[in-house]
Amino acid sequence: xxxxxxxxxxxxLCFAGNAMAQTVMKPTIVPAPRVDYNLELGASYNSYFGAxxxxxxxxxxxxxxxFRGYASFTYVHNxxxxxxxxxxxxxxxxxxxxxxxxxxxxxxxxxxxxxxxILTGNVWKDFSAMPKDLGAYNNYNYLGRxxxxxxxxxxxxxxxxxxxxxRYSEGGSPYYxxxxxxxxxxxxxxx
Length: 191
Fold this sequence. Notes:
Radius of gyration: 31 Å
Oligomer: single chain
Helix content: under 10%
Structural class: mainly beta
Distance between the termini: 103 Å
Number of domains: 1
Strand order of the largest sheet: 1-2-3-6-7-8-9
Strand content: over 45%
């Protein structure tokens, strides 16, 4: 009986030893896809400039661990609007603008310098058939016919970051207004 008990004890210890000697499996991390797609849809309404809707598909590609490039196409539909204009006799008349479409292509990239600093660059071109001196419906956010912007974002804490940016744009100033012009006049190509 003592031999059977010892044999049983040895077998249990062997099985327990096998259970403890198993290799530890680390969880596998699925790598993020290198290509990412996004679709934005939006609308804006206000009483002065009218209404606008847009569609913006974007494709992003992770080129390296630190650099990501992207390209997007934006279609903006600016809806017709009514506005009141004064006459030379002192009266008022109601006028209506035409609806306009904008086609904007944008290409850019993000570079992760370190865990706290990201540098971003972007260039765009507006292929719209609108007159060059007639800006988008909202000329407070008018990008011009083409241009580039560069920004740096520094993460101070997890909940606080600071961003600085520089933008260069070419294109006619909206509605022939000097307040939205660069002050240097138009370039040699009529922009």
